[in-house]
Structures are given as C-alpha cells and as structure tokens.
Amino acid sequence: MVHVYNCHPFASQHIVPTDQEPGLVCCGGDALFVVSAAGCKVEAYRMQGEDCPLICRFSTMGTVHRILYSQIGDYLVTIEEKNGSTYLRAYTNWRYQASERTRVGVRLLGHFLRVPSLCGAPKEQMEIIEMPLSEPPQCMACCALTGDLLVGCTRSLVVFGLKRQELGERLVVLDFEMLVVLHIHNWSPSDVALCAGYVALQTELEVLVVKLERMEKRHPPPEDCTPIPSPEPQSPHESDDFFMFPKHLELLGAESKDCGVSVTLEGTGAELGSSMALTYVLYRRFAPDFFRGCSSVHSAHSLHTLYTLSMLTCSLPLCAGNCEGGREPVCVFCFFSLPGAGYMYSLHNPVQLLSTYQYPEKTHEAALCDQFLYVITRNALQCFSVRCSAVAARAGDPYIDTTMKACPPATMEVCALRIQLFIGLRSLCHDGNHIVLITAVDSESKVETGSTTRRTICRKTSRSKQVCESGYGWNLYVITTVPTLQLYTEMVEYSRRYEQTLSHNSLHLLSEAHLLVRSSLLSLRGGEEGDRAQLQNAFRESCAQLGDCFSRLDRRDCHLALPYYKMSGLSVTEVIQRNVARSGDSTSVTDYGKGFLFFLKHSLYEETMEDLSEETANTVLDIFSQAEPAQLPHVVTSPFMVKADPACVLEHLEQLEVSGAPAVTLTLCKSAQALRLGNMQQYCQQMEQHSEMLQVFGFIEEPKLLFQGRGSSVTPTLFAQHLQHTQVGLLVAAMVALHENSKVKLEEADLFFQELCKDCVDRQSPYLLVDFWEALLVASSQDSIIQELLFRLASVYINRITRRDCTGITALKTAEDLINSCFHYGQPYPWVSILTHLSHCSVAPDNHQEDLHKLQSLLCGPTLDISSVLPLLEQLPDTDGAGVSVYVLCATRLGQLESSLERLLEHCPEAVIPYAHHQLHSHMLTLWWQKLFPELCKRARVPSEKGSVLLTALKETVKVVAMELSPLEFLELLPDDGSAHFFLPHLLECSLRHSQSHLTTHIMESC
Amino acid sequence: CTGMSRVYVMADKSTLLKVILLGDGGVGKSSLMNRYVSNKFDTHLFHTIGVEFLNKELEVDGRRVTLQIWDTAGQERFRSLRTPFYRGSDCCLLTFSVDDSQSFLNLNLWRKEFVYYADVKEPESFPFVILGNKIDVSGRQVAKEEAQRWCCENGGHPYFETSAKDATNIVEAFEEVARRVIASDDKQEPLLSTHTVELRRKSRSDPSCC
Predict the structure, then answer these.
(1) Candidates B5, B14, B87; nearest CB to A427
(2) What integer is the mean pLDDT of A537-561?
(3) How far apart (Å, rounded) are the C-alpha atoms in residues A159 and B159?
(4) Which residues from B are below 8 Å from A145, CB to CB?
(5) How does strand A380-385 pair with strand A149-153?
(6) Residue A324 above 80 pLDDT?
(7) Residue A976 belongs to domain spanning
(8) Contact indicator for A368, A309 with CB cutoff of 8 Å
(9) Residues A900-933 pLDDT 10s
(10) Do A71 and B90 touch (CB under 8 A)?
(11) What is the ipTM, given to two decimal places?
C-alpha cells in the first residue's frame, strides 16, 4: 500500500524565457542548461529568482545528443555529432562566455600547457576539452563527489578522472585523465551512473553495479582484474533452439558475480588506473512484461532511469583527496526505475533493497535527490519519500538503535507526499531546491488524455492558461521546492489530524518528517550556521514528538520513546509534564502508555538525570501507584527522588504493603523513609521485622538502598550511614552479597566504605573496609579477586604492625574466626608462637596482636603469593619477634631455610629447635648436620647471654644427628676440639642403634 | 547534483559549418578571424596557442548558416595541439602573407598536413580557399599571378587577397567559404538522396573519433 499524503512540497513555478523550443535540458550549480531543439546552441539560465535570467549562450561544436553538468569542476559534458562522427567533449569555464564574441579554446585531454612562458597570463575564456575514444560514446555520468566522468560505449566503459589546477584566484584549469577501461562482453549499456567508485550500468531490463577500488600495489590483482579469454559467459538470452524468457533475478553482493555479465578491467597506465580492482555489487534483471499487452519490449516496459546517490556524514574524520568538503561518503544508493515501479538499493554493507516504489500510473522519468524521489507520468509530477537518511544515520554511529539514539527504520514504507498535475510532461531534471520540467502538448496526447486533461484544466486554470498563452504547445518550467522546515511543519501539523483516530499514520508522518530533517542536516554544507541551528531545533522537536508518539502508543517498539526523548534534549521533568498534561483530564490507569513508563523506569534506574522537584517526584509516585505499584520500592530509592516527601512515600509504600506485595525490600524502603523522617521508633520496628539474612536479600533486590551512583561517583545513603553505626555486620554482609551477585564492583565497594569512613584516621584502608575485604575473602569464589584481596590484606596488616596502630577499634572477625572459616588463612606453624610470645611487644594492644596473627596466618596459608608480599616487608623492622617471625615465615615459604636458621640463631635461638623440628625433614633433613650443627658449634663457643639456650639447642641437634647418621659419618662431623664427654654418649647411642639395626637386618635376611 | 536529459525532439538539420584557418605563424590568421567576426584589428596580437574558435552567423543566398571559424597556432611546436581538430572540417582556409614568400611556399605543406590529419578521402574535391593576407604592407614578395597560378594548379581553388588591417576582402572571402561548402554539399546530395534526414553527411566511411 502506498500512502498518499497531500502535502505541499512545491512552492512556485516559473517559465524559462527560451526563444527556441528546448531539446535537451540539464541543471546543476543553480544553472539550467537548455539545448535548443536544433541541437547546436546551449543557453544557460540562473534558476534562483523569479525571472530565470540568462547567464550566457554559446555554441557547441556539433549536434548535442546528451548533455550533463558536473557541479564539481563546474563543467558541462556532451556527446555531440558532427559530420557523422560522435564526440565526447567537456565545456569548462563556460561562465566566461557571457559575450558570444569571445574566442573559445579547444584542446585534447592531457594537452594542457603548464609552461607559463607559453601561456602568458591565464586567459579568462571558455575551454573545450575533447576526449578521444575508440568507440562512439552513448551515455555518460559524473561522480557528484569527485567530478570524475564515466562514459558508456557499445562494448566498454571508460572512467576519466577530473584534474584541477588553480591559476590565480578565480581561474581554475581543468583536465581529464583516462583512469580505467571496463570491457563488457555481450552487453551494451543504455545508461550509466557513477558515484564514489560505484559504477552502475543498465540495459533495457538489466542493472549491474560494480565497485572500483584502489588496491595496494603489492597484492596480486584479483582474477577479475585480468581479462580472461574464457568461453563467452552463458547468457540466458541466447539459445539456438529456444527463446528463453528471462526470469526475474536479483543477486546481491558477492553472489552478483554469477550474473553472467562479464566485466574486465584494463588499466590505462595512469597512476590510479594501474592499481584498480573490481568487485560485483548488485545485479537485477526484470522479465519482459508481456502480460500488460505491450507488444514491444522496447521503451514500453524498459528501465528509464538510473541514479546513484551518496550521503555524507559529519561524524567521520576528514579524508584526503578531492571529496567535496573533505568528507568520506558513508552510504551509496542506487535507484533504477521501470515505468511501473522503482527500486532503491543501499550499496553499503550489506547490499539490500531499501524501498520499492509502486507507481500509481506509468512513469516516464525519475529524478532522485537525498530527500525525495520525483517521477513524472504523462500528466503528473509525483514526489515520493526516500529512506537514504535512515541508512546514513545508521552508518558509522555505534549508538544508533540503542537506548541512546533511534531513527525510523530504513525499510519503513515509502509514501507519496504529493501528486501534482501537469499537462504533457516530457522531461524532468533536478538540482538543489529546483525541479525543471519540459511540457509539450501534441495533438496525439490531446486526443489520448481526454477526460483527464479536462479535469486538469478545471483544477489548474492558471497553469493551462500559461500553456495557451505561450502558444507553442511547449513550456519549460522551473519549480521551486519549499524549504525543508516549511514542509516539515506542514507534515507535523498534518500528523496532528491523524492523532486521535489513526495513530499509526500519525507516527508514519512524523517519521517521514523526522527523516526529512535528518537528511537536510546531513546534506548541510559549511557556512550555514543559522540554518543548522534552525534544523537542529526542528530535529529536537521532531524527536520529542516521536517520543510522545511511542510513549503513548501501545506498540511492541514502545521502548523507542526512551532514545527519542533523550535525543530531544527534554529534561525528564518536561517529559513527565508532557505526558501528565495529556492524560490530565482523565484518571484512568491506562492513560500512561507503556513507552512512557519504560522511559520513566529507565531514567530513574539507569541514567543520570536532574533531581526531580518535590512536586514532580510526588507525581512520579502517583503515576507508579496507578500504573505499576510493584515498581514503587525501586522508584523511591532512585537518587533522583530524594526530594519526594518521605511521608508521602511512606503512604504509597503502605498502600502497597496492604495489597500484599513481597515484603523484605518494601520493609527496608520503609525503614529508609522512617530514617529520613527521623522516626527512630518506626525505623526500629521495620528493621526488626526480618532477620539480617533476609534483609541481605532485600538489599540484593534493591542495592540503591545502600548506595547510589556508579563507578567513581558511588555515595552511601543515609540508610547505609546509619547501619554503619548500628548494624555494621549487616552492612558488610550486604555489600559482600551485592559483590557476589555482581551488583557492585570491588572498586565501587571500596569507594563506598572509604566514603562512609571518610572521617576515620586511616582514610586509605579504614577498618570497615578491611572488615569487608576479610568478609569478602571468606565468601568469594572468584579467583581473580582473591589474589587481589590477599595482597591488600597482607599490605594492610604489615602496615598496621609497622605503625603499631592502636585505634582501639575491634575488627569484625578475629584471627581465630578467619582461620576457622577461611581456607586462605592457615594455622600458624608451632614455632611462630614462640617468636611472638618472646617478642618485646607483649605490651602491644590487642588489635596489633590480632593483625600479626592474621598476617602470620595468611603467610602460613596456601593461597598467598609470598613473593608479591616481599616488597612490602621493607618497612617492617626485623628487630623484634613479630618482625622476625614474618621475615622467617616468608623466607621459609620461599625455601630459604639456611638463612632462616641464621636469622633465628641471631635473634631468637629459643625458636631454632622447634623450627628445625617443623621445617627440616625429608630432603631438608641434611641441614641438621650440614648447617645447624656447625652453626651451633660455632656460636656455642662464643660466650653470650644466650649461651645456655644455644647449648641446649646443640644438645638437641646432636641427639637428632646421632639418630640419623651412621657412627662413621657422625664421627667425621664432630669438631676436632670438641670435648669427648659431650659427644660420647651420643656417639655410643648412635653406634648402638646402628649395630642394632644392622643386627635386625641380618636377622631379617637370615630368616 | 548532476542532471541529465534525453533528446525528445531531434534537430532535423545542422547548419553549423566548421571552417579551419591554417598557415605559417604570423601570417595573420587570428587577425583575419577577429576582423571578420568582431570587425576589430589589434597590431600587437599574441601568438595563438593550440586551437580556438569563434562563431559567426550569416546568410548566404537565402540560407542561414553558422560559420564556426577555427583559428590554429601556426608555429611548428604547436603542431600536436592543432592537428587533432582538423577532422570534421567543412572547409579549409590556407593562408599566407604576401610579404613573406616562405609562407607562400609552405602552402603545400599545410595542404598536405590538413589532408592527412583531417582524413579527407577525396582531397581533389575538398573545398579549400586560399587567402593572401597583408596586402597593405609594402615590400611584397609574392605576386598575385603567382598565387593564382598555384591555386589553379592545385585544384582550382578560389583565391582572395586580403588585408585584416584595412578590412579588405574579408567578408567576401568568408562568404565564398560558406558558398563553397553549401555547393559541395549540394553536389553530394544526389548520392545520399535516400537519407533525407542526413543531408549534410559527407561520404566519409570512418566514423571513428580517434
């Protein structure tokens, strides 16, 4: 179904004062070029203004068969015939031809003289550049971005690059350079189009689009690049015995390579051409329409228009090269049209059919621009919408189609905005805000049109008069289109008429209007800041209207209200006002649309927005009480609702409670509100309703009860502050639970506690934060954070032991608790306690002892990476038992037993033997005699206050060594100066034990 | 923003006549053209570089025609710039200066160059017109009879003695050009009598444009 809206895109029409009957017309750059019907004279008119003044008039060098204007380079290109030969020529600097008596320069392409001595001062004269071709040219096209020229011949296509050279302020010398030749087998294009490297060509019923790309020279050319003298491609048109009816066929992207049309590239030696590659993009074939009673395939049912169009975006970085304004085209489109239907394809990834235009009657010609498609039938100029801006908006913008941004879909149905009647339309072209039409009434059409014509005359009296007055039966019109904003306003007003009855039509019109403004913004060039500001205002207004539409309509895509409202720049308060005002006259629940509620919820829960005023916040409460009461606990905890009246909130929550909603979160919400009111009695009453365990679940349900914001802007709530002083265990447990349920990140939790304890002495790692880390370490099963937590805790413990903290604050968990409940805290080795007890810090506060215990326990545990802790030890003195215990523990864990033994002998010989018993076994057993024994012997000789301790240790060591070694080995070990009576008993025991064991072995063997 | 449209009413007949001015550098080709088209004369005219043309509409024997007069650079170094545009000429004006005998002797070379590059199939019947310019200058080196003899021996071409400076014989010469072309077309008309639309078509067989 084609929507037809009776909008007014056409503002006014003027008649161009040509003397002779116009043959060909083309336009661009605000100029209209008319080739007289005799074909050898071109008249250029200015299209702005009422009277279309003549700019200049000049003769061509032959009879013009085709004419085309390129805005880039401001040149005209013609296919001309003279004395039976066909020529391709470009007319440059034509604006200098104001006087017909000026000489015109002519040269072949590439023959521009660059030597200043030859040229003298650059001449301000028109120059014609002739481009020799090996086949007669048939059709041509210019790239609107580069000014490059594509020429279609019978068996080949030639691409010419436009070269420009500035010669002073106003004068530019143009030249062309043949870039590449495309050979086509068995295919002769009737029309071609060129845009940003995309080459489109069509025959009567086929369209092929290929893309030319520059290649890195190092790569071998793809197979397409080399002409293969392969067997002729099988064409479905040809068969010896049968005539095959070609079927409809559409091949998109890579698969279009199999279309049967072979295109091969031939470089021309030009720098660019030698590194070009070709890819197939699109192929479409139509079956001849025999069923409409057209006797001939030709003209009656063949493609009549081929266009390529590019759309630019400002969001991309500037590109080098001669793209206009230095912007890379983001999207390229291809449009082609049969008399009955037109097809618009997007050529960017993926290649896809965007829109099909089903014309109400047979069309003659079409013209495409980035906002509209214009087509002419015999008696009407029709204006259709296009979807280019919907595609362009999506290209290169990662935020489109998210909760951030939205745009009407590119596949949305197109519509006819206007069908304007004219008599005897023959030809159509378009430039900027002008449409040029040639009408001609001949006797044949007068007879044929019959009643239609009569009706037209009745309605358009003034126009038909003009036709009569001109007297020739032909007219050349310039139609001015209305400014985008005017049409936009009309469409918006029009949509209001649909608003009450046909909401979906209203949405469609608003979407059309939105795309119109979008495309206008996209095609804005620099230096139009005033226009830009106006268009941006319209754009925001349009977003707001679409937001309204989606927020009210009961559609599956009602969530689009959110991105549209966001793009509109309206504050949440304004959006609420818009929607409340609309449903103000009624109190029905259904008046708040799903889209609006979605927007409201998302804004309250996920976004940054302004704090709602008390009045608005209370309105929001009313809205949710009516529409979705279950959301109330979440709504009231939103940070933007802080100004809501707590009494009012409590009232709403109590209503909800009465209706039997799930309890814990609700109760917590009520507690929070009671706290705000300062009603401690009610607060306590609410807090006693559920166990702490259940309350933790409540917090998981709604974390905003404890903190608000995300990332670096996490702030604890009043509720959390209160819990810190009253139920710190609950607070820590809740945060651990939130972390384990991925409701809060570790960094956020850190920030939360730091913020809570910002008045504490130790701002970096306050006790509450350490409590949290310890509790999290007990609970967590995420390996990645366990190492992080272990390191942090070790660091905190070491720091506190070093600084001998005595804040008097008791940690939530004792070392004993942690050892019992947490796998990562190990049971401290027995010798550690000797060190700790003997240390001089026995007067240290309890929490110092606790921290030392926790650190020792961590060092004895299985998980902590000891080497990571080493750098932290630097600050820790090794003069007391505590320090020594930590150093020795670390060294021991790292396998450095010898140095540990030395350190112990030095600082605390009492612990040496327990240490040796605990650590020196299996392969470390040898250290008893290799390290400990000699060390003890050495140290025992030196008289000291620890002499007796050392001697006792030596005795114990000798006892062990005697157990382990053979008598001979033991003997060798004894020092030369040792007193025999000290060692003798041990030697005796050793030999006895040894012979005993020998004896036993013998007995065993003899048995 | 390019627009293109197709012919729906084809021109039935082209009255555009391409006339090319050839001759040595400095013989006054540009001055002849300027005098004829603009009726102006400038003693200090620059050398022509490459090829330039001007259009002049006139009526000859009741027929309206447009003469497209092509002025070329006579100097040898500009040869490659001018020769590609000989093709499609309806008439060739060979020009020399009567005070420079070398320029007269070079007429043969110019004729040959034109016939070669214009790809003229029947040089004998091609309309040439010979102009002896600068008759206002004293110290004449080429006699009128000598020039007439050359014209006679080389196909019976019309000869005009002109002065661009004094505007002598200019209009007459160009009108003769127009007459010659029309006559030459009319002569060929019976050969192409079936192609009524293509009255002006020459009997050239090679339509290639390179």
Answers:
(1) B5
(2) 91
(3) 47
(4) none
(5) unpaired
(6) no
(7) 895-1006
(8) yes
(9) 888 888 778 888 888 888 887 777 777 877 778 8
(10) no
(11) 0.78
